[in-house]
Specification:
Layout: H1 19-33, H2 40-45, H3 49-68, H4 70-76, H5 90-108, H6 117-136, H7 167-178, H8 180-197, H9 203-206, H10 209-214, H11 239-275, H12 288-300, H13 306-330, H14 337-346, H15 355-369, E1 385-389, E2 401-404, E3 414-418, H16 431-438, H17 443-451, H18 458-461, H19 466-478, H20 480-483, H21 489-513, H22 519-529, H23 534-546, H24 553-572, H25 578-586, H26 593-607
Parallel strand pairs: 1-3
Antiparallel strand pairs: 2-3
Protein backbone atom coordinates (compact mmCIF):
# COMPACT_ATOMS: atom_id res chain seq x y z
CA UNK A 1 0.00 0.00 0.00
CA UNK A 2 1.86 3.24 0.96
CA UNK A 3 5.09 4.22 2.74
CA UNK A 4 7.94 5.98 0.97
CA UNK A 5 10.53 8.68 0.99
CA UNK A 6 10.33 9.76 -2.63
CA UNK A 7 8.22 8.61 -5.54
CA UNK A 8 11.27 8.08 -7.69
CA UNK A 9 13.75 6.04 -5.77
CA UNK A 10 13.23 3.11 -3.47
CA UNK A 11 11.26 0.85 -5.75
CA UNK A 12 13.66 1.06 -8.67
CA UNK A 13 15.83 -1.89 -9.58
CA UNK A 14 18.97 0.14 -8.86
CA UNK A 15 17.93 0.32 -5.23
CA UNK A 16 16.73 -3.23 -4.69
CA UNK A 17 20.00 -5.10 -4.89
CA UNK A 18 18.77 -6.89 -8.01
CA UNK A 19 21.06 -5.20 -10.49
CA UNK A 20 22.14 -8.50 -12.03
CA UNK A 21 18.56 -9.56 -12.61
CA UNK A 22 17.63 -6.18 -13.98
CA UNK A 23 20.62 -6.08 -16.32
CA UNK A 24 19.82 -9.55 -17.59
CA UNK A 25 16.19 -8.66 -18.26
CA UNK A 26 17.13 -5.32 -19.80
CA UNK A 27 19.70 -6.86 -22.14
CA UNK A 28 17.20 -9.52 -23.14
CA UNK A 29 14.73 -6.89 -24.19
CA UNK A 30 17.38 -4.90 -26.06
CA UNK A 31 18.71 -7.97 -27.86
CA UNK A 32 15.47 -8.96 -29.39
CA UNK A 33 12.10 -8.53 -27.73
CA UNK A 34 11.44 -5.26 -29.46
CA UNK A 35 12.39 -6.34 -32.97
CA UNK A 36 11.87 -10.11 -32.84
CA UNK A 37 8.35 -9.90 -34.25
CA UNK A 38 9.71 -8.24 -37.37
CA UNK A 39 12.37 -10.92 -37.92
CA UNK A 40 10.74 -14.32 -38.62
CA UNK A 41 14.10 -15.92 -39.36
CA UNK A 42 15.45 -14.89 -36.00
CA UNK A 43 12.29 -16.15 -34.32
CA UNK A 44 12.72 -19.51 -36.00
CA UNK A 45 16.30 -19.69 -34.75
CA UNK A 46 14.99 -19.64 -31.20
CA UNK A 47 12.52 -22.48 -31.80
CA UNK A 48 14.82 -25.20 -30.53
CA UNK A 49 15.06 -27.94 -27.95
CA UNK A 50 15.34 -25.51 -25.04
CA UNK A 51 12.20 -23.72 -26.19
CA UNK A 52 10.28 -26.98 -26.41
CA UNK A 53 11.49 -28.04 -22.97
CA UNK A 54 10.43 -24.76 -21.37
CA UNK A 55 7.01 -24.70 -22.99
CA UNK A 56 6.39 -28.33 -22.03
CA UNK A 57 7.43 -27.62 -18.44
CA UNK A 58 5.23 -24.54 -18.16
CA UNK A 59 2.23 -26.40 -19.58
CA UNK A 60 2.78 -29.38 -17.31
CA UNK A 61 3.17 -27.20 -14.24
CA UNK A 62 0.04 -25.22 -15.05
CA UNK A 63 -1.93 -28.46 -15.14
CA UNK A 64 -0.30 -29.46 -11.86
CA UNK A 65 -1.30 -26.12 -10.33
CA UNK A 66 -4.90 -26.53 -11.47
CA UNK A 67 -5.10 -30.09 -10.15
CA UNK A 68 -3.61 -29.03 -6.81
CA UNK A 69 -5.93 -25.99 -6.64
CA UNK A 70 -9.26 -27.29 -7.94
CA UNK A 71 -11.26 -24.43 -6.44
CA UNK A 72 -9.13 -21.88 -8.31
CA UNK A 73 -9.39 -24.02 -11.43
CA UNK A 74 -13.17 -23.93 -11.07
CA UNK A 75 -13.14 -20.16 -10.69
CA UNK A 76 -11.11 -19.87 -13.88
CA UNK A 77 -13.58 -22.08 -15.73
CA UNK A 78 -11.40 -25.21 -15.82
CA UNK A 79 -13.98 -27.79 -14.78
CA UNK A 80 -11.84 -30.91 -14.74
CA UNK A 81 -11.80 -31.08 -10.94
CA UNK A 82 -15.17 -29.47 -10.17
CA UNK A 83 -16.07 -32.25 -7.74
CA UNK A 84 -13.11 -31.61 -5.39
CA UNK A 85 -11.94 -29.25 -2.69
CA UNK A 86 -8.29 -28.36 -2.38
CA UNK A 87 -6.25 -30.87 -0.40
CA UNK A 88 -5.08 -28.66 2.47
CA UNK A 89 -3.68 -31.48 4.58
CA UNK A 90 -0.24 -31.11 6.10
CA UNK A 91 1.09 -34.00 4.04
CA UNK A 92 -0.20 -32.56 0.76
CA UNK A 93 1.30 -29.16 1.54
CA UNK A 94 4.65 -30.77 2.26
CA UNK A 95 4.48 -32.69 -1.03
CA UNK A 96 3.83 -29.45 -2.91
CA UNK A 97 6.86 -27.92 -1.21
CA UNK A 98 9.04 -30.85 -2.30
CA UNK A 99 7.61 -30.51 -5.80
CA UNK A 100 9.11 -27.01 -6.00
CA UNK A 101 12.60 -28.50 -5.83
CA UNK A 102 11.75 -30.87 -8.68
CA UNK A 103 10.57 -27.94 -10.78
CA UNK A 104 13.72 -25.95 -10.07
CA UNK A 105 15.80 -28.98 -11.02
CA UNK A 106 13.89 -29.25 -14.29
CA UNK A 107 14.42 -25.58 -15.00
CA UNK A 108 18.15 -25.86 -14.34
CA UNK A 109 18.44 -28.42 -17.15
CA UNK A 110 16.99 -26.03 -19.73
CA UNK A 111 19.68 -23.98 -21.49
CA UNK A 112 18.36 -20.50 -20.82
CA UNK A 113 20.87 -18.85 -23.18
CA UNK A 114 19.28 -20.69 -26.11
CA UNK A 115 15.81 -19.26 -25.45
CA UNK A 116 14.31 -16.24 -27.19
CA UNK A 117 14.32 -13.02 -25.17
CA UNK A 118 10.60 -13.44 -24.50
CA UNK A 119 11.11 -17.00 -23.22
CA UNK A 120 14.12 -15.97 -21.16
CA UNK A 121 11.75 -13.61 -19.39
CA UNK A 122 9.18 -16.41 -18.95
CA UNK A 123 11.97 -18.60 -17.56
CA UNK A 124 13.09 -15.92 -15.10
CA UNK A 125 9.58 -15.09 -13.91
CA UNK A 126 8.63 -18.74 -13.45
CA UNK A 127 11.84 -19.43 -11.56
CA UNK A 128 11.14 -16.42 -9.39
CA UNK A 129 7.75 -17.90 -8.43
CA UNK A 130 9.37 -21.19 -7.43
CA UNK A 131 12.07 -19.45 -5.41
CA UNK A 132 9.44 -17.51 -3.48
CA UNK A 133 7.46 -20.70 -2.79
CA UNK A 134 10.63 -22.38 -1.54
CA UNK A 135 11.41 -19.47 0.77
CA UNK A 136 7.83 -19.21 2.05
CA UNK A 137 7.20 -22.77 3.24
CA UNK A 138 9.48 -22.79 6.32
CA UNK A 139 7.61 -19.79 7.74
CA UNK A 140 4.50 -22.04 7.85
CA UNK A 141 1.95 -19.42 6.81
CA UNK A 142 -0.13 -22.34 5.48
CA UNK A 143 -1.05 -23.08 9.11
CA UNK A 144 -3.38 -20.04 9.03
CA UNK A 145 -6.21 -21.15 6.68
CA UNK A 146 -8.94 -19.09 8.37
CA UNK A 147 -9.45 -15.45 9.25
CA UNK A 148 -12.38 -13.06 9.30
CA UNK A 149 -12.20 -12.51 5.53
CA UNK A 150 -11.45 -15.97 4.15
CA UNK A 151 -11.62 -19.62 5.07
CA UNK A 152 -13.78 -22.69 5.17
CA UNK A 153 -16.60 -20.83 6.94
CA UNK A 154 -17.16 -19.03 3.61
CA UNK A 155 -16.68 -22.07 1.34
CA UNK A 156 -20.19 -21.82 -0.12
CA UNK A 157 -19.16 -18.63 -1.98
CA UNK A 158 -17.30 -20.78 -4.49
CA UNK A 159 -20.68 -21.63 -6.05
CA UNK A 160 -21.14 -17.99 -7.05
CA UNK A 161 -18.18 -18.38 -9.42
CA UNK A 162 -19.45 -21.57 -11.09
CA UNK A 163 -21.68 -22.37 -14.03
CA UNK A 164 -24.75 -24.47 -13.33
CA UNK A 165 -25.91 -25.41 -16.80
CA UNK A 166 -25.77 -29.20 -16.97
CA UNK A 167 -26.76 -32.04 -14.69
CA UNK A 168 -23.06 -32.75 -14.16
CA UNK A 169 -22.52 -29.21 -12.86
CA UNK A 170 -25.04 -29.86 -10.10
CA UNK A 171 -23.71 -33.35 -9.44
CA UNK A 172 -20.19 -31.97 -9.08
CA UNK A 173 -21.37 -29.51 -6.43
CA UNK A 174 -23.16 -32.35 -4.63
CA UNK A 175 -19.92 -34.35 -4.73
CA UNK A 176 -18.09 -31.39 -3.21
CA UNK A 177 -20.66 -31.17 -0.43
CA UNK A 178 -20.41 -34.90 0.25
CA UNK A 179 -16.63 -34.63 0.60
CA UNK A 180 -16.89 -31.57 2.84
CA UNK A 181 -16.30 -33.65 5.97
CA UNK A 182 -12.81 -34.52 4.79
CA UNK A 183 -12.10 -30.90 3.86
CA UNK A 184 -13.16 -29.83 7.35
CA UNK A 185 -11.06 -32.56 8.99
CA UNK A 186 -8.01 -31.34 7.10
CA UNK A 187 -8.69 -27.72 8.03
CA UNK A 188 -9.10 -28.48 11.72
CA UNK A 189 -5.89 -30.57 11.73
CA UNK A 190 -3.98 -27.69 10.09
CA UNK A 191 -5.34 -25.17 12.58
CA UNK A 192 -4.53 -27.48 15.47
CA UNK A 193 -0.94 -27.70 14.20
CA UNK A 194 -0.91 -23.92 13.88
CA UNK A 195 -2.00 -23.59 17.48
CA UNK A 196 0.75 -25.99 18.56
CA UNK A 197 3.37 -24.15 16.52
CA UNK A 198 2.03 -20.72 17.66
CA UNK A 199 1.10 -19.73 14.12
CA UNK A 200 -2.25 -18.19 15.03
CA UNK A 201 -4.03 -14.89 14.52
CA UNK A 202 -4.88 -12.35 17.23
CA UNK A 203 -8.07 -13.05 19.14
CA UNK A 204 -9.41 -9.53 18.52
CA UNK A 205 -9.96 -10.31 14.83
CA UNK A 206 -10.70 -14.01 15.07
CA UNK A 207 -13.62 -13.40 17.42
CA UNK A 208 -15.51 -12.30 14.30
CA UNK A 209 -15.41 -15.84 12.87
CA UNK A 210 -17.93 -17.68 15.13
CA UNK A 211 -20.72 -15.43 13.86
CA UNK A 212 -19.79 -16.38 10.31
CA UNK A 213 -19.86 -20.08 11.21
CA UNK A 214 -23.29 -19.61 12.79
CA UNK A 215 -24.69 -18.48 9.43
CA UNK A 216 -23.79 -21.93 8.07
CA UNK A 217 -25.54 -23.83 10.87
CA UNK A 218 -29.16 -23.68 9.71
CA UNK A 219 -32.28 -25.56 10.74
CA UNK A 220 -33.16 -26.81 7.27
CA UNK A 221 -30.90 -27.93 4.45
CA UNK A 222 -32.81 -25.68 2.06
CA UNK A 223 -31.73 -22.67 4.14
CA UNK A 224 -28.03 -23.47 3.78
CA UNK A 225 -25.92 -21.13 1.64
CA UNK A 226 -24.64 -24.31 -0.04
CA UNK A 227 -28.15 -25.00 -1.33
CA UNK A 228 -28.31 -21.78 -3.38
CA UNK A 229 -27.57 -23.43 -6.79
CA UNK A 230 -30.57 -25.75 -6.34
CA UNK A 231 -33.12 -22.94 -6.04
CA UNK A 232 -33.21 -22.55 -9.82
CA UNK A 233 -32.57 -24.91 -12.72
CA UNK A 234 -32.34 -24.52 -16.50
CA UNK A 235 -35.78 -24.64 -18.11
CA UNK A 236 -35.01 -27.78 -20.11
CA UNK A 237 -34.24 -29.96 -17.05
CA UNK A 238 -36.83 -32.73 -16.58
CA UNK A 239 -38.70 -32.40 -13.29
CA UNK A 240 -37.60 -35.88 -12.18
CA UNK A 241 -33.97 -34.77 -12.52
CA UNK A 242 -34.47 -31.55 -10.57
CA UNK A 243 -36.28 -33.49 -7.83
CA UNK A 244 -33.45 -36.01 -7.67
CA UNK A 245 -30.78 -33.29 -7.51
CA UNK A 246 -32.64 -31.34 -4.81
CA UNK A 247 -33.00 -34.48 -2.69
CA UNK A 248 -29.32 -35.37 -3.13
CA UNK A 249 -28.25 -31.82 -2.27
CA UNK A 250 -30.31 -31.81 0.94
CA UNK A 251 -28.92 -35.21 1.88
CA UNK A 252 -25.34 -33.99 1.37
CA UNK A 253 -25.95 -30.84 3.40
CA UNK A 254 -27.64 -32.70 6.24
CA UNK A 255 -25.14 -35.58 6.24
CA UNK A 256 -21.87 -33.72 5.68
CA UNK A 257 -21.99 -29.92 5.58
CA UNK A 258 -24.04 -29.17 8.68
CA UNK A 259 -22.34 -31.71 10.98
CA UNK A 260 -18.94 -30.44 9.81
CA UNK A 261 -19.81 -26.86 10.69
CA UNK A 262 -21.22 -27.83 14.09
CA UNK A 263 -17.97 -29.63 14.82
CA UNK A 264 -15.98 -26.66 13.52
CA UNK A 265 -17.89 -24.27 15.79
CA UNK A 266 -17.10 -26.43 18.83
CA UNK A 267 -13.44 -26.67 17.86
CA UNK A 268 -13.09 -23.00 17.05
CA UNK A 269 -14.74 -21.59 20.15
CA UNK A 270 -13.63 -24.22 22.62
CA UNK A 271 -10.07 -24.92 21.49
CA UNK A 272 -8.76 -22.60 18.79
CA UNK A 273 -9.95 -19.14 19.77
CA UNK A 274 -8.52 -19.38 23.32
CA UNK A 275 -5.12 -20.23 21.78
CA UNK A 276 -5.04 -17.07 19.64
CA UNK A 277 -2.71 -14.20 20.47
CA UNK A 278 -3.75 -11.56 22.99
CA UNK A 279 -1.65 -8.97 21.13
CA UNK A 280 -1.44 -8.11 17.44
CA UNK A 281 1.49 -8.25 15.03
CA UNK A 282 3.52 -10.81 13.08
CA UNK A 283 6.51 -10.03 15.31
CA UNK A 284 5.12 -12.45 17.94
CA UNK A 285 4.99 -15.42 15.54
CA UNK A 286 7.92 -17.87 15.28
CA UNK A 287 10.67 -16.11 13.31
CA UNK A 288 8.25 -13.20 13.15
CA UNK A 289 10.80 -10.53 12.23
CA UNK A 290 12.13 -12.55 9.30
CA UNK A 291 8.60 -13.60 8.31
CA UNK A 292 7.42 -10.02 8.03
CA UNK A 293 10.52 -8.90 6.14
CA UNK A 294 9.90 -11.76 3.69
CA UNK A 295 6.23 -10.82 3.26
CA UNK A 296 7.19 -7.20 2.64
CA UNK A 297 9.61 -8.27 -0.11
CA UNK A 298 7.13 -10.74 -1.57
CA UNK A 299 4.22 -8.32 -1.83
CA UNK A 300 6.16 -5.25 -2.94
CA UNK A 301 8.55 -7.20 -5.24
CA UNK A 302 11.33 -4.96 -3.88
CA UNK A 303 14.11 -5.28 -1.30
CA UNK A 304 12.72 -2.48 0.85
CA UNK A 305 12.92 -3.10 4.59
CA UNK A 306 9.94 -2.54 6.90
CA UNK A 307 11.61 0.58 8.29
CA UNK A 308 12.17 2.02 4.81
CA UNK A 309 8.55 1.34 3.96
CA UNK A 310 7.38 2.93 7.23
CA UNK A 311 9.43 6.08 6.58
CA UNK A 312 8.13 6.30 3.03
CA UNK A 313 4.58 6.07 4.34
CA UNK A 314 5.11 8.94 6.74
CA UNK A 315 6.48 11.08 3.89
CA UNK A 316 3.50 10.23 1.67
CA UNK A 317 1.05 11.02 4.48
CA UNK A 318 2.62 14.47 4.88
CA UNK A 319 2.49 15.13 1.14
CA UNK A 320 -1.14 14.07 0.75
CA UNK A 321 -2.21 16.09 3.82
CA UNK A 322 -0.83 19.14 2.04
CA UNK A 323 -2.99 18.39 -0.99
CA UNK A 324 -6.00 17.85 1.26
CA UNK A 325 -5.45 21.27 2.84
CA UNK A 326 -5.55 22.79 -0.65
CA UNK A 327 -8.80 21.01 -1.55
CA UNK A 328 -10.35 22.05 1.76
CA UNK A 329 -9.69 25.65 0.79
CA UNK A 330 -11.27 25.17 -2.64
CA UNK A 331 -14.35 23.72 -0.92
CA UNK A 332 -14.62 26.92 1.11
CA UNK A 333 -14.33 25.15 4.46
CA UNK A 334 -12.90 27.47 7.15
CA UNK A 335 -12.08 25.00 9.92
CA UNK A 336 -9.11 22.69 10.48
CA UNK A 337 -8.43 19.61 8.38
CA UNK A 338 -9.60 17.42 11.27
CA UNK A 339 -12.87 19.40 11.42
CA UNK A 340 -13.21 19.01 7.66
CA UNK A 341 -12.82 15.23 8.06
CA UNK A 342 -15.56 15.21 10.70
CA UNK A 343 -17.82 17.28 8.45
CA UNK A 344 -17.29 14.81 5.58
CA UNK A 345 -18.04 11.86 7.86
CA UNK A 346 -21.19 13.24 9.46
CA UNK A 347 -23.08 15.57 7.12
CA UNK A 348 -26.05 13.58 5.74
CA UNK A 349 -25.72 15.14 2.29
CA UNK A 350 -22.62 13.01 1.66
CA UNK A 351 -24.36 9.63 1.97
CA UNK A 352 -27.41 7.74 0.75
CA UNK A 353 -30.19 6.57 3.03
CA UNK A 354 -30.79 3.17 1.42
CA UNK A 355 -28.72 0.34 0.01
CA UNK A 356 -30.65 0.49 -3.28
CA UNK A 357 -29.72 4.15 -3.78
CA UNK A 358 -26.07 3.38 -3.06
CA UNK A 359 -25.89 0.43 -5.46
CA UNK A 360 -27.66 2.44 -8.16
CA UNK A 361 -25.12 5.24 -7.76
CA UNK A 362 -22.21 2.84 -8.24
CA UNK A 363 -23.80 1.32 -11.34
CA UNK A 364 -24.41 4.80 -12.77
CA UNK A 365 -20.77 5.69 -12.13
CA UNK A 366 -19.65 2.63 -14.10
CA UNK A 367 -21.74 3.77 -17.07
CA UNK A 368 -20.06 7.18 -16.92
CA UNK A 369 -16.55 5.77 -16.82
CA UNK A 370 -16.82 3.26 -19.67
CA UNK A 371 -17.07 5.72 -22.59
CA UNK A 372 -14.23 7.88 -21.20
CA UNK A 373 -11.65 5.09 -21.44
CA UNK A 374 -10.76 5.71 -25.08
CA UNK A 375 -9.18 9.03 -24.12
CA UNK A 376 -6.36 7.22 -22.34
CA UNK A 377 -6.31 3.66 -23.68
CA UNK A 378 -5.68 2.05 -27.05
CA UNK A 379 -6.26 -1.57 -25.95
CA UNK A 380 -9.56 -2.37 -24.19
CA UNK A 381 -10.58 -5.73 -22.69
CA UNK A 382 -13.35 -7.58 -24.47
CA UNK A 383 -14.86 -9.19 -21.36
CA UNK A 384 -17.54 -7.09 -19.63
CA UNK A 385 -18.01 -6.54 -15.90
CA UNK A 386 -20.92 -5.98 -13.54
CA UNK A 387 -21.49 -4.18 -10.23
CA UNK A 388 -23.02 -6.27 -7.42
CA UNK A 389 -23.51 -6.10 -3.65
CA UNK A 390 -21.16 -7.91 -1.29
CA UNK A 391 -23.12 -10.81 0.31
CA UNK A 392 -24.90 -9.73 3.48
CA UNK A 393 -23.35 -12.47 5.58
CA UNK A 394 -19.81 -11.10 5.20
CA UNK A 395 -20.45 -7.39 4.54
CA UNK A 396 -20.08 -6.33 8.21
CA UNK A 397 -16.61 -7.91 8.41
CA UNK A 398 -15.11 -6.84 5.11
CA UNK A 399 -13.95 -3.69 3.40
CA UNK A 400 -15.59 -1.17 1.09
CA UNK A 401 -15.31 -3.22 -2.11
CA UNK A 402 -13.48 -5.99 -3.93
CA UNK A 403 -13.24 -7.44 -7.42
CA UNK A 404 -13.69 -10.98 -8.78
CA UNK A 405 -11.98 -11.71 -12.06
CA UNK A 406 -13.87 -13.19 -15.02
CA UNK A 407 -13.59 -16.87 -15.83
CA UNK A 408 -10.86 -17.79 -18.29
CA UNK A 409 -13.38 -19.46 -20.59
CA UNK A 410 -15.34 -16.24 -21.03
CA UNK A 411 -18.57 -17.55 -19.51
CA UNK A 412 -18.53 -15.32 -16.41
CA UNK A 413 -17.96 -11.58 -16.48
CA UNK A 414 -15.77 -9.73 -14.00
CA UNK A 415 -17.59 -8.44 -10.92
CA UNK A 416 -17.07 -5.29 -8.86
CA UNK A 417 -18.54 -6.04 -5.42
CA UNK A 418 -19.68 -3.05 -3.34
CA UNK A 419 -20.27 -3.05 0.40
CA UNK A 420 -23.78 -1.78 1.15
CA UNK A 421 -23.66 -2.46 4.91
CA UNK A 422 -24.56 0.72 6.80
CA UNK A 423 -25.05 2.91 3.71
CA UNK A 424 -24.84 6.04 5.84
CA UNK A 425 -21.10 5.29 6.24
CA UNK A 426 -20.50 4.87 2.46
CA UNK A 427 -19.85 8.33 1.11
CA UNK A 428 -20.86 9.76 -2.26
CA UNK A 429 -17.49 11.46 -2.75
CA UNK A 430 -15.73 8.05 -2.61
CA UNK A 431 -17.71 6.54 -5.48
CA UNK A 432 -15.58 7.79 -8.42
CA UNK A 433 -12.20 6.74 -6.99
CA UNK A 434 -13.41 3.37 -5.72
CA UNK A 435 -15.09 2.61 -9.05
CA UNK A 436 -11.98 3.54 -11.03
CA UNK A 437 -9.93 1.23 -8.76
CA UNK A 438 -12.12 -1.87 -8.73
CA UNK A 439 -13.58 -1.85 -12.24
CA UNK A 440 -12.15 0.21 -15.10
CA UNK A 441 -9.50 1.27 -15.75
CA UNK A 442 -8.43 -0.52 -12.56
CA UNK A 443 -8.78 -4.19 -11.63
CA UNK A 444 -11.21 -5.39 -14.26
CA UNK A 445 -9.43 -3.54 -17.04
CA UNK A 446 -5.95 -4.79 -16.13
CA UNK A 447 -6.85 -8.36 -15.14
CA UNK A 448 -9.20 -9.03 -18.06
CA UNK A 449 -6.70 -7.54 -20.51
CA UNK A 450 -3.91 -9.75 -19.13
CA UNK A 451 -6.11 -12.84 -19.47
CA UNK A 452 -6.62 -12.00 -23.15
CA UNK A 453 -2.88 -11.95 -23.97
CA UNK A 454 -2.80 -15.40 -25.56
CA UNK A 455 0.92 -15.31 -26.35
CA UNK A 456 1.75 -15.27 -22.64
CA UNK A 457 2.00 -18.55 -20.71
CA UNK A 458 -0.91 -19.24 -18.36
CA UNK A 459 1.01 -18.52 -15.18
CA UNK A 460 1.46 -14.95 -16.42
CA UNK A 461 -2.03 -14.49 -17.85
CA UNK A 462 -3.83 -15.62 -14.70
CA UNK A 463 -1.29 -15.14 -11.94
CA UNK A 464 -1.17 -12.17 -9.62
CA UNK A 465 1.65 -9.96 -8.42
CA UNK A 466 0.11 -7.69 -5.83
CA UNK A 467 2.50 -4.76 -6.32
CA UNK A 468 1.59 -4.61 -10.00
CA UNK A 469 -2.12 -5.46 -9.78
CA UNK A 470 -2.89 -3.20 -6.83
CA UNK A 471 -0.34 -0.60 -7.87
CA UNK A 472 -2.06 -0.32 -11.24
CA UNK A 473 -5.50 -0.02 -9.62
CA UNK A 474 -4.31 2.79 -7.36
CA UNK A 475 -2.67 4.51 -10.33
CA UNK A 476 -6.01 4.11 -12.15
CA UNK A 477 -7.68 6.15 -9.42
CA UNK A 478 -5.39 9.06 -10.21
CA UNK A 479 -6.51 8.97 -13.86
CA UNK A 480 -9.85 10.37 -12.75
CA UNK A 481 -8.34 13.84 -13.08
CA UNK A 482 -7.64 13.34 -16.79
CA UNK A 483 -10.98 11.60 -17.32
CA UNK A 484 -12.90 14.51 -15.80
CA UNK A 485 -14.28 12.85 -12.66
CA UNK A 486 -12.63 15.04 -10.00
CA UNK A 487 -13.78 18.49 -11.07
CA UNK A 488 -15.79 18.85 -7.88
CA UNK A 489 -13.63 19.49 -4.76
CA UNK A 490 -15.46 16.78 -2.81
CA UNK A 491 -14.84 14.17 -5.51
CA UNK A 492 -11.17 15.22 -5.49
CA UNK A 493 -11.20 14.86 -1.72
CA UNK A 494 -12.56 11.36 -2.22
CA UNK A 495 -9.62 10.51 -4.47
CA UNK A 496 -7.15 11.96 -1.96
CA UNK A 497 -8.91 10.04 0.80
CA UNK A 498 -8.29 6.80 -1.06
CA UNK A 499 -4.69 7.72 -1.82
CA UNK A 500 -4.18 8.65 1.83
CA UNK A 501 -5.77 5.35 2.82
CA UNK A 502 -3.00 3.54 0.92
CA UNK A 503 -0.28 5.81 2.36
CA UNK A 504 -1.58 5.16 5.87
CA UNK A 505 -1.31 1.44 5.19
CA UNK A 506 2.45 1.70 4.82
CA UNK A 507 2.66 3.27 8.25
CA UNK A 508 0.20 1.15 10.20
CA UNK A 509 1.06 -2.22 8.60
CA UNK A 510 4.75 -1.84 9.40
CA UNK A 511 3.80 -0.20 12.68
CA UNK A 512 1.78 -3.19 13.88
CA UNK A 513 3.89 -6.01 12.47
CA UNK A 514 7.39 -4.62 12.88
CA UNK A 515 7.32 -1.73 15.36
CA UNK A 516 4.84 -3.37 17.77
CA UNK A 517 2.06 -0.80 17.55
CA UNK A 518 -1.20 -1.83 19.20
CA UNK A 519 -4.49 -1.94 17.30
CA UNK A 520 -5.88 1.29 18.76
CA UNK A 521 -2.78 3.26 17.79
CA UNK A 522 -3.20 2.08 14.21
CA UNK A 523 -6.91 2.99 14.21
CA UNK A 524 -6.17 6.43 15.64
CA UNK A 525 -3.44 7.14 13.07
CA UNK A 526 -5.86 6.21 10.27
CA UNK A 527 -8.64 8.43 11.68
CA UNK A 528 -6.27 11.36 12.10
CA UNK A 529 -5.26 11.31 8.44
CA UNK A 530 -8.31 10.26 6.39
CA UNK A 531 -12.06 11.00 6.52
CA UNK A 532 -12.99 7.33 6.12
CA UNK A 533 -15.86 6.12 8.27
CA UNK A 534 -14.97 4.43 11.54
CA UNK A 535 -16.53 1.12 10.49
CA UNK A 536 -14.36 1.04 7.35
CA UNK A 537 -11.26 2.04 9.29
CA UNK A 538 -11.68 -0.74 11.86
CA UNK A 539 -12.32 -3.35 9.16
CA UNK A 540 -9.26 -2.13 7.28
CA UNK A 541 -6.99 -2.29 10.32
CA UNK A 542 -8.26 -5.79 11.10
CA UNK A 543 -7.54 -6.77 7.51
CA UNK A 544 -3.92 -5.61 7.85
CA UNK A 545 -3.61 -7.53 11.08
CA UNK A 546 -4.51 -10.83 9.40
CA UNK A 547 -2.72 -10.18 6.07
CA UNK A 548 0.68 -8.78 7.10
CA UNK A 549 2.54 -7.16 4.23
CA UNK A 550 -0.19 -7.37 1.59
CA UNK A 551 -1.30 -3.79 2.14
CA UNK A 552 2.21 -2.50 1.40
CA UNK A 553 1.97 -3.32 -2.29
CA UNK A 554 -0.56 -0.72 -3.42
CA UNK A 555 1.28 2.53 -2.89
CA UNK A 556 4.66 1.14 -3.79
CA UNK A 557 3.35 -0.20 -7.09
CA UNK A 558 1.50 3.03 -7.85
CA UNK A 559 4.57 5.16 -7.19
CA UNK A 560 6.67 3.00 -9.50
CA UNK A 561 4.15 3.36 -12.35
CA UNK A 562 3.99 7.13 -11.79
CA UNK A 563 7.78 7.29 -11.72
CA UNK A 564 7.97 5.45 -15.05
CA UNK A 565 5.32 7.70 -16.59
CA UNK A 566 7.22 10.81 -15.48
CA UNK A 567 10.41 9.39 -16.93
CA UNK A 568 8.70 8.61 -20.24
CA UNK A 569 7.11 12.06 -20.46
CA UNK A 570 10.44 13.73 -19.77
CA UNK A 571 12.39 11.67 -22.30
CA UNK A 572 9.81 11.65 -25.09
CA UNK A 573 8.45 15.17 -24.59
CA UNK A 574 5.94 15.91 -27.38
CA UNK A 575 6.31 12.33 -28.70
CA UNK A 576 4.84 10.91 -25.49
CA UNK A 577 1.56 9.09 -26.14
CA UNK A 578 -0.30 8.13 -22.95
CA UNK A 579 -2.22 5.39 -24.76
CA UNK A 580 0.99 3.80 -26.00
CA UNK A 581 2.53 4.07 -22.51
CA UNK A 582 -0.46 2.27 -21.01
CA UNK A 583 -0.09 -0.54 -23.57
CA UNK A 584 3.56 -0.96 -22.53
CA UNK A 585 2.53 -1.20 -18.88
CA UNK A 586 -0.44 -3.55 -19.35
CA UNK A 587 0.16 -5.88 -22.27
CA UNK A 588 2.97 -7.83 -20.60
CA UNK A 589 0.66 -9.00 -17.83
CA UNK A 590 1.42 -8.50 -14.15
CA UNK A 591 5.17 -8.07 -13.65
CA UNK A 592 7.56 -7.59 -10.72
CA UNK A 593 8.37 -3.90 -10.45
CA UNK A 594 12.00 -4.37 -11.46
CA UNK A 595 10.87 -6.18 -14.62
CA UNK A 596 8.31 -3.50 -15.36
CA UNK A 597 11.05 -0.92 -15.00
CA UNK A 598 13.19 -2.80 -17.54
CA UNK A 599 10.25 -3.14 -19.94
CA UNK A 600 9.59 0.60 -19.94
CA UNK A 601 13.28 1.46 -20.28
CA UNK A 602 13.56 -0.87 -23.24
CA UNK A 603 10.56 0.77 -24.89
CA UNK A 604 12.10 4.19 -24.32
CA UNK A 605 15.40 2.97 -25.77
CA UNK A 606 13.60 1.81 -28.90
CA UNK A 607 11.62 5.06 -29.18
CA UNK A 608 14.86 7.03 -28.93
CA UNK A 609 16.51 5.26 -31.87
Amino acid sequence: MQNWQSPSANCSAENTGHTDMKDRIYKSWLLGCLFLAACPALHAAFTNEATGQLHALLEKEWDYTMEQSPTWASQLGDRRWNDRWDDVSLSATEKRYKHVFQVLDGLSKIRRQELSPADQLNYDLFKREQDIAKEAYPFKWHLLPVNQREGIQLADELADSLRFESIKDYEDWIARMRSFTNYMDQTIAVMREGSRFRMVQPRIVMQRVPGQIDKQIVALASQSPFFKPFRTFPADFPSEETNRLVAAAKEAIEGSVLPAYRRFKDFFTGEYLPSCFDQIGAWQMPNGKDLYAFLARKYTTTKMTPQQIHDLGLAEVRRIRGEMESVKGKAGFKGSLEEFFQYLRTDPKFSYKTTNELLTAYRAMAKEIDPALVKLFRSLPRVPYGVEAIPDKIAPDTTAAYYRQPSADGTRAGTFFVNLYKPETRYKYEIPALSLHESVPGHHFQIALAMEQGELPNFRRYGELTAFVEGWALYAESLGDEMGFYNDPYAKMGQLTYEMWRAVRLVVDTGMHSLKWDRQKAIDFFKENAPKGENDIINEIDRYITWPGQALAYKIGELKIKELRTKAQKELAEDFDIREFHDVILLGGALPLETLDARVRSWLKEKGK
